[in-house]
Design brief:
Radius of gyration: 26 Å
Number of strands: 23
Largest sheet: 6 strands, mixed
Distance between the termini: 82 Å
Number of domains: 3
CATH superfamily of the largest domain: P-loop containing nucleotide triphosphate hydrolases
CATH architecture of the largest domain: 3-Layer(aba) Sandwich
Mean pLDDT: 79
Strand order of the largest sheet: 2-3-1-4-5-6
Helix content: 10-25%
Strand content: 25-35%
Length: 511
């Protein structure tokens, strides 16, 4: 029996895995791993993941039967078209490509996986960038006949930009190059050279054939020269981000909860670190501090909480914070940034226009942008940056941003959750670019004659004259100030909002 013939017989269900899950559905799985597939169009992403699902997951028999009865075959083989397990949209099935992100879930005997199958076509790079932001590990595919291409480099740069630290290069279609070791070694060397440009913690190349299952979930008989782990074995060893309590405490406030009596809780999800009853927390923008007296959840109160948990914090002092604020430990607050530099992938079909009104979206806040300046673009051929003042769709740009008011932002390399940013259109709300903060500065730019400053006194005597000194009205004051700045920026007026005092100065905090 030939190697390929032997591999063709491996299309039976993974009954052992399915049986193990059925008999012990509540077993302790070693964390949940989110993995992304990406690469150039037609490199076989959907086929690879379909094969992985077919061989190693607990697919229902009717799903397998639908694939068998479809009549569609994988490539030039007599095997089922495994990509049918991923292609969800009618347009995808008609065109034979992935357009939108496809999410699939499956368990092996030791791990639980969330599969994120992303588009490979350059036109849908924005979808790939969205999926990458959720991934613990990325499977970057290349066709063994073509090797590393420009789109491969773009995807690697985006993975680095959004903080994916573990990458697997799946060198697919090895059957079409005669399972050549020389071909694989050359691509592996090119991949390692590429990875030197980025901050990946782990980068591993694995030769595979998605159609025949070589090195997908079982070791290939056709490539005895490869002695490493197969793809599934490698993925089962990838650590999950989980909900580790380590790191610097960050708590973006999503809303304020009240029960009509004495309870006032600041609700949100802890994005990093941990907090306990009795800890002192501080608002990043105002600098005001208070002690945590209660950590409330839907299931009851907790003595402490950590990253990933949604809670409501009750403080002993009602400091003036609302949605958009970020709580931290007093000694490790994020910067109340007024200027920043970042790396962004430009997602909009409309190129950058300095006259357009843009807003910056942080983890919970929406901030007017006074000025947005493109400083450089990444050259995907040389993988180096070169000075530029313009950018268009799919470009990876270095930008400098001056904000209309301070916002709590961390450098992405230090704390990813509060260093992730989006640029949105001030009029339509459409996503323009996604990226990360590489440097933040609490010092504002010196405003020129073209800037309009919304002062607290101006707002209190005009737009907000009907508001009182209550906590609710102070929140409404800042909401109106923000909306006024957004409208002015959309009209092409460079605007800044006078920030509130960092400490109590005897003035009304809303003025």
């Amino acid at each position: 029996m030939t190697a390929q013939a032997a591999l063709k017989t491996s299309t039976a269900p993974a009954t052992a895995t399915a049986a193990a899950i059925a008999t012990d559905p509540l077993r302790d799985l070693n964390g949940i791993v989110h993995m992304l597939t990406c690469g150039s169009v037609d490199d076989g992403k959907s086929t690879l993941i379909g094969r992985l699902l077919w061989d190693a997951s607990d697919l229902y028999e009717d799903q397998r039967e639908n694939v068998r009865k479809s009549g569609r075959k994988a490539a030039d083989s007599d095997l089922p078209d495994f990509s049918m397990l991923l292609d969800g949209l009618v347009a995808e099935r008609e065109q034979g490509i992935t357009i939108d992100i496809a999410w699939k879930y499956f368990d092996t005997e030791t791990r639980r996986f969330v599969l994120i199958d992303s588009p490979g076509h350059e036109q849908y790079t924005r979808n790939m960038a969205s999926g990458a932001s959720h991934a613990d590990v990325a499977i970057l595919l290349v066709d063994a006949r073509a090797g590393v291409k420009k789109q491969t480099k773009r995807h690697a740069a985006i993975l680095d930009l959004v903080g994916v630290k573990r990458v697997v290069l799946a060198v697919n279609k090895m059957d079409l190059v005669g399972y050549s070791e020389d071909v694989f070694r050359k691509i592996d060397a090119d991949f390692k050279t590429l990875c030197w440009k980025f901050g990946f913690w782990e980068a591993t190349a694995i030769p595979v054939s998605a159609v025949y299952g070589d090195n997908v979930s079982t070791k290939s008989q056709a490539m005895p020269w490869y002695t490493g782990a197969n793809l599934l074995e490698h993925l089962e060893k990838v650590p999950s981000r989980g909900s580790a309590s380590g790191g610097t405490f960050r708590f973006p406030v999503q809303t304020v909860l009240r029960d009509g009596q004495d309870f006032r809780g600041l609700a949100g999800t802890i994005t990093s670190g941990s907090v306990a009853v009795g800890d002192t927390v501080s608002d990043a923008l105002s600098g005001r501090s208070a002690n945590v007296v209660r950590i409330a959840t839907m299931s009851g109160d907790l003595p402490s909480a950590q990253s990933g948990q949604a809670v409501a914090l009750q403080l002993d002092v009602d400091i003036d914070v609302s949605r958009g604020a970020v709580l931290a430990k007093p000694e490790m607050r994020p910067v109340a940034a007024q200027t920043l530099e970042g790396r962004f992938v430009w997602l909009s079909e409309q190129p950058f226009d300095a006259r357009t009104g843009y807003l910056l979206r942080t983890v919970t806040d929406l901030v007017p942008i006074s000025t947005l300046e493109i400083k450089a673009l990444l050259d995907l051929e040389t993988m180096s940056s070169h000075p530029a003042t313009k950018c268009g769709v799919n470009d990876i740009a270095v930008a400098r941003i001056a904000l209309g008011r301070p916002a709590a932002i961390d450098v992405f390399a230090d704390i990813a959750e509060t260093g992730t940013l989006m640029i949105v259109d001030a009029v339509t709300g459409a996503s323009i670019a996604g990226g990360v903060a590489t440097a933040v500065n609490a010092k504002a730019d010196v405003l020129g004659d073209g800037h309009f400053i919304l002062t607290r006194e101006m707002l209190a005597n005009g737009l907000c004259r009907d508001l009182s000194l209550s906590a609710n009205d102070r929140e409404e004051f800042m909401r109106r100030a923000n909306e006024a700045a957004i409208l002015l920026r959309a009209a092409g007026v460079s605007v800044a909002i006078e920030p509130p005092p960092m400490v109590d100065d005897g003035m009304d905090p809303g003025l």
